[in-house]
Amino acid sequence: MSKDAVLNRIESVNDFVIRFANVNGTGSASANNMFAKSIFRMGIPVSPKNIFPSNIQGLPTWYEVRVSEKGYVGRRGGIDIVVCVNPQSMAKDIQDVEPGGYFLYDSTKALDLRLMRRDIHFIGIPLTDICRKEYSDPRQRQLFKNVIYVGALAALLDIEFEVLTGLIADQFEGKEKLIAPNVHALELGFHYATENFQCPFGIRVKRCDNVGNAILIDGNTACGLGAIYGGATVAAWYPITPSTSVVDAYEMYAKRLRVCPASGKQNFAIVQAEDELAAIGMVIGANWNGARSFTATSGPGVSLMNEFLGLAYFAEIPAVLIDVQRTGPSTGMPTRTQQSDVFECAYASHGDTKQVCLFPSTPKECFEMTAQSFDLAERLQTPIILLTDLDLGMNDTMSEPLEWDDARAYDRGKVLTSEQLEDASERFGRYLDVDDDGICYRTYPGTHPTKGGFFTRGTSRDEYAVYTEDGAAYVRNMERLLKKWETAKSYVPAPEIINAEHGSNIGIIYFGTTRAAALEAVDHLIEDNIAVDALRIRAFPFNHEVEEFIAQHDTLFVIEQNRDGQMRSLIINECEINPAKLVAVLNYDGMPITARYIQNKVAGYLESANVEPLRRQAGHKAERN
Amino acid sequence: MTYLRPNFRHPDLPTNELGYTKKNYEGSLSTLCAGCGHDSISAAIVQACFELSIEPHKVAKLSGIGCSSKTPTYFLGNSHGFNSVHGRMPSVVTGANMANRDLIYIGVSGDGDTASIGMGQFVHAVRRSLNMTYIVENNGCYGLTKGQDSATADVGSKSKKGDANPFEGIDLAALALQLGASFVARSFSGDKEQLIPLLKAAIKHPGFAFIDVISPCVTFNNNPGSTKSYEFVRDHLQATGTVDFVPMRKEITTSYSAGTSQEVTLHDGSVIHLHKIDDKLDIHNRRSALDLIQEYKSESKILTGLLYMDKEPTDLHETIGTVHKPLRSLQEKELCPGNNVLQNINASFR
Ligand SMILES: Cc1ncc(C[n+]2csc(CCOP(=O)(O)OP(=O)(O)O)c2C)c(N)n1
Ligand code: SF4
Ligand SMILES: [Mg+2]
């Protein structure tokens, strides 16, 4: 960019999207994280997202950071600044810049003139050259190149330099001799930029106080912590992106927080299974035997676990399964995000099965819902499937801090002790609905020498767990399971309902990571004079509020990140509602859904359908929830 | 905790050290075909547990799917049982064992359940050295689905339909040996004298104990031409020795003539005596066991008895370093680090 550029420039403070185009495996991740975190530490909301290939080294990888003083953390769409350190993807990266935006590149090699655009600003920094002069070790040349562009951005965007050096100090705590060279690399970039460009340029950051006491954490780490706090002692798993880091986090914190001080031995067991069938089998075995146990996987793993999930449903064995959803089968696109396992999980397995599913939207909910899953699994004696996705699981996401109420106690459900068995006057019946809520009492193996023992099997048993192939006994059991399903509705998390100021006859329904984009779209729609009420589903079975909300609105947009409108179909299948009211808004290209997309779809539909959004009568307004 | 012993007892029924009669170890009435080899194995398990004076509720019995996998209902009625899914018993036992290392785990499987659909899980349970007794009730066919050849059927063996099996049979005992199982034995459902002591030794073994029990299917695989029929097996059996198991607490009364018996001390101090018919086998030598299996196989003979035993087996809990207390007994105060710690964790994410 020459200093006297005349073309249009995007000018903004604390409101932009920047994308880093890197090569996988070149050490760019930690520099990019440092960039995002420095802005976060300046009190400005950020949301970084990794877009990575199914590859360990060599393919293009992107890191997209949205900076939003207003606190919008969903994907916005559009890119204002590209930092391109990858010649492979340069042509496309140039195309992707918004008109008036900025393209930072390594100018060691001259730009291919055919790629030039006249409506964006090119900022060349000879990164390779600087490194070649400064460092002799090729590995250092590679690594510091990343730090140098962060230094240049600090000058261009006006990031506080001390914040960056503070981050470096934190990052290399214990390896102090690495601090000085990293700070030096930052300075190299910083000085190059100040000497050669007008700094700050059109887009810049400015300290504010909009992050409060928020934390920046990925959902998988929060899930791993939730399993620690929820009392999980047995983890069984098989590696699969994007779920692997759930168990990694569990292990890391368990090694810190779950070691018996007296013996130095572990208060937990992690088994890397031979496949997902074995992983869920282990989880079921451990829960059957009274331990809290979980597994984490993604769609293909859930497919393999299907038979066992049915067994656990019928035999009524608790289990916790975290499904970090990703795109379709095979490899490649699967390292992109999606919400396409709704069907797979909700009705997992053969026979008449319904599985309890939870849908967290934020890291805080990942933590809380994972911990809660263990209570629910034991209370309801059934598998609990927590559906997150790659976007939430693997990206640092701004979140309210995690909280634990020290006064709360684990709900271990209906389990009889040996004393209770000894004192019981009635014969123990494992599948006897004593309390009329569909949930029966269970015993752990090894409790009492002569009472409470029973034989666990999928079907073909009576209330006393005695083998029978009697059809009537089968039907009685299936009816009781339905009663339990009804009971579950009062235990699972209620939906989050946010009504428009004066209510509306139009509603939107969404779940999981769609939340951030949906809430932002609601704001933008209001600016267009379209008021909508919003409901976020947090669990399956659907609580009664979901049905009520649908009844109260004339048109409802069900927004989700899959092709088939799976949640919409699930609602139609499970609720007594008019399906014609539900309009599908679907995004499934592997990238997180954006507010712009939702806004356009909703506004476009209303316009073409000639729907005049009516304000609902005040008296008709649903409670804010 | 102490419990009252059952006070109504048939005066003639012998009791074990714990005061239990054999009845306390029995299960429901079997629904298998009359004469099925699997029922004899259930009876042997009842006898072994009775003789070992195991508290019945300290055993968990688990299985996959098949006629063989149905049998845990027919023994140890006071124990918790789990009839899981086809071929996946090993993973369920693994999880159960991780939850509570203090119970005794008996896994019952079939040759279809183990050598086909469950091969992966079997192999990995052996490899992890899970502390359990793994019994394959091996009839060379799929009993429950009406007699198809299984992967342990010997090549050339004839099924009920009369077709000769064209594929090589898998020898599960040899496989377990290769995979590093710390206790490997083979027996025959009809040979109580051999099977009961072997079961007792396997149950007492503090590591992975595998027993391949040839157990003819009277309905689908007891025809001339099948290599797992009663007649065939009886004629071709070659025992490595009869095994007698004597817990340490009792005086060893049986006398064994020096040249023919081998004394084996088990991990908990109990002793088993192996009467060797064939003294070529050193039961602490994995390779010699494998060689001998091959040698007999080439003569169409089935080698039975204790084939291998590691005196110092490892257990998965030791490998991963879990506490001695069962994980399932840990309480919230040992498991949940509390809000203060969480606030420090929050700080690390700012
Ligand atoms: C996933 C699955 N596939 C197939 C079956 C049908 N099936 C039930 S038992 C069995 C074979 C059992 O053979 P084996 O383990 O040798 O037991 P046996 O009946 O011979 O004792 C099969 C194929 C099943 N139950 N589950
Ligand atoms: S079919 Fe064969 S294996 Fe099954 S019960 Fe009958 S005899 Fe036994
Ligand atoms: Mg069989």
Describe, in short, the structure shown.
The complex is a heterodimer of chains A (about 625) and B (about 350). Chain A is α/β, with parallel strands linked by helices and about 625 residues long.
CATH class of the largest domain in chain A: Alpha Beta
Low-confidence stretches of chain A: 1-5, 616-625
CATH topology of chain B: Rossmann fold
Largest interface, C-beta closer than 8 angstroms, per-chain residues: A-B, 74 and 66 residues
Q: How much is the average pLDDT of chain B?
A: 85
Radius of gyration of chain A: 27 Å
- Please state the oligomeric state of the protein chains shown: heterodimer
In percent, how much strand structure appears in the residues of chain A? 15-25%
Largest sheet of chain B: 8 strands, mixed
Count of separate structural domains of chain A:
3
The count of DSSP E runs of length 2 or more, i.e. the number of strands of chain A, is 23
Walk me through what this model shows.
The complex is a heterodimer of chains A (625) and B (350). Chain A is α/β, with parallel strands linked by helices. Chain A folds into 3 domains: 12-204, 3-Layer(aba) Sandwich (Pyruvate-ferredoxin Oxidoreductase, domain 3), CATH 3.40.920; 217-399, 3-Layer(aba) Sandwich (Rossmann fold); 496-624, Rossmann fold, CATH 3.40.50. Helices cover 37% and strands 19% of the residues of chain A. Chain A has 19 helices and 23 strands. In chain A, the strands form 5 sheets. Chain A has a 7-stranded mixed beta sheet with strand order 11-10-12-13-15-14-21, with helices on both faces. Chain A is globular, with a radius of gyration of 27 Å. The model of chain A is unreliable at 1-5 and 616-625 (pLDDT under 50). Chain B has a single domain, classed as Rossmann fold, CATH 3.40.50.970. Chain B has an 8-stranded mixed beta sheet with strand order 2-1-3-4-8-7-13-9, sandwiched between helices. A 3-stranded antiparallel beta sheet of chain B has the order 10-12-11. In chain B, strands 5-6 form a two-stranded antiparallel sheet. Chain B has 350 residues and is of the alpha/beta class. Chain B is 30% helix and 19% strand. Thiamine diphosphate binds at residues 65-68, 86, 110-113, 137, 139, 141-145, 150 of chain B.
